[in-house]
């Protein structure tokens, strides 16, 4: 199959999945749910959007600063402004064409900062490995402070009849066990299809798993070679703290969600992060998973759907506004910088 056609089909599939999840989230809303949504929106504290925007913009700035540290370890010293502009333009591009944003931001920085493109790609890969490890830590913290929360979330997604009750740490049931078996079966089938299609055997599968493990270990080990390791670790913690604070501040927007705190913020950070990976820009998937997460805390389905959608809109607005401003500002900034040094 033509590579371009395959890319179009893949993007169409995941975009369609996102739109389907949006429809799935609202299709069963009752008149009472819609009434709750209208009431919540009419009494919402819309000024909360300002600190949420600040937290999210700050998170993208911290990501740019952290990326810059990786480039400094290679002997290059790009400006924070160019790194930030490239990050925002990359995120905006990813909303249109998944994964293209990584290429675009490396291309822009290579052009304006004269850094070899291949070395920039290497820093992106390392960043993604570190982010994956950090996300696993977030999952672990969420599970420690709320044992059984992922079982509850699984049941909320695959067994809607059981949703709407408060989380019961450690609770498991036949339905959740069945879901886990189905999930395991799907994974086994996908692996079997991959092995048959690629003509691989169990030894090849074991080598692939070892290879992935080695890459993750190398990614962690690469931190040792950074000149400013402590600063890099601090920025990573700050980055995810800002992501966490975005959801926490969002709780204050509605009267119905203001009682929730850090535990619930960790849950929506975990679920929302998965949603951002599943579909382009998290469309549909992010709000759907956040909605299901909030429902298991006893929040009305309609308000939970509105809350998830508003959080996604806020994140998307930050990226689109920041991306468009960066798209215009980056050439101007570099033209001015060139004229000052000449």
Give the SSE layout.
Blueprint: H1 3-26, H2 31-42, H3 49-72, H4 80-96, H5 100-113, H6 117-145, H7 149-158, H8 174-197, H9 202-222, H10 229-251, H11 262-278, H12 285-295, H13 301-341
Helix pairs in contact: 1-12, 2-13, 3-4, 3-10, 3-13, 4-5, 4-13, 5-6, 6-9, 6-11, 7-12, 10-11, 11-12, 12-13
Summarize the structure.
Helices cover 78% and strands 0% of the residues.
Low-pLDDT segments: 161-176
Instruction: Summarize the amount of helix as a percent range.
Output: over 70%
Q: Biggest sheet: strands, sense, closure? A: none
Mean of pLDDT? 79
Q: What is the tally of helical segments? A: 13
CA distance, first residue to last residue: 50 Å
Order of helices and strands: HHHHHHHHHHHHH
What is the beta-strand fraction? under 5%
Structure description:
With 342 residues, this protein is an all-alpha fold. It has a domain at 47-167 and 228-337. It has 13 helices and no strands. The chain has helices spanning 3-26, 31-42, 49-72, 80-96, 100-113, 117-145, 149-158, 174-197, 202-222, 229-251, 262-278, 285-295, 301-341. Helix 11 packs antiparallel against helix 12 (285-295). The longest helix is centred in the last third of the chain and has 41 residues, at 301-341. It is globular.
């Amino acid at each position: 199959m033509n590579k371009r056609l395959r890319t179009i089909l893949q993007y169409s599939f995941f975009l369609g999945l996102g739109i389907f999840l949006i429809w799935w989230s609202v299709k069963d809303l009752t008149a009472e749910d819609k009434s709750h949504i209208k009431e919540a929106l009419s009494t919402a504290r819309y000024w909360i959007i300002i600190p949420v925007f600040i937290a999210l913009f700050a998170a993208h700035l911290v990501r740019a600063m952290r990326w810059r540290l990786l480039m400094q370890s290679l002997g290059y010293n790009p400006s924070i402004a160019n790194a930030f502009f490239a990050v925002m333009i990359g995120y905006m591009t990813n909303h249109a064409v998944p994964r293209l944003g990584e290429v675009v931001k490396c291309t822009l920085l290579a052009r304006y900062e004269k850094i070899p493109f291949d070395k920039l790609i290497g820093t992106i890969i390392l960043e993604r490995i570190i982010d994956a490890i950090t996300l696993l830590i977030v999952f672990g913290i969420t599970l420690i402070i709320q044992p059984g929360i992922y079982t509850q979330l699984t049941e909320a997604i695959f067994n809607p009849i059981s949703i709407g009750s408060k989380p019961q740490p450690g609770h498991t049931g036949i339905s959740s066990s069945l879901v886990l078996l189905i999930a395991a079966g799907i994974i086994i089938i996908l692996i079997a299809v991959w092995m048959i299609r690629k003509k691989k055997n169990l030894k090849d599968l074991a080598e692939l798993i070892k290879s992935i493990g080695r890459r993750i270990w190398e990614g962690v080990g690469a931190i040792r070679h950074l000149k400013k390791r402590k600063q890099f670790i601090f920025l990573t913690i700050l980055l995810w703290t800002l992501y966490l604070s975005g959801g926490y501040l969002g709780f204050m927007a509605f009267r119905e969600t203001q009682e929730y705190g850090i535990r619930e913020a960790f849950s929506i950070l975990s679920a929302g992060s998965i949603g951002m990976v599943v579909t382009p820009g998290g469309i549909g998937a992010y709000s759907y998973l956040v909605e299901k997460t909030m429902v298991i805390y006893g929040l009305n389905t309609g308000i939970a759907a509105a809350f998830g959608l508003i959080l996604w809109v806020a994140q998307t607005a930050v990226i689109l506004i920041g991306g468009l401003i960066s798209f215009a500002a980056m050439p101007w900034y570099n033209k001015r910088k060139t004229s000052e040094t000449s």
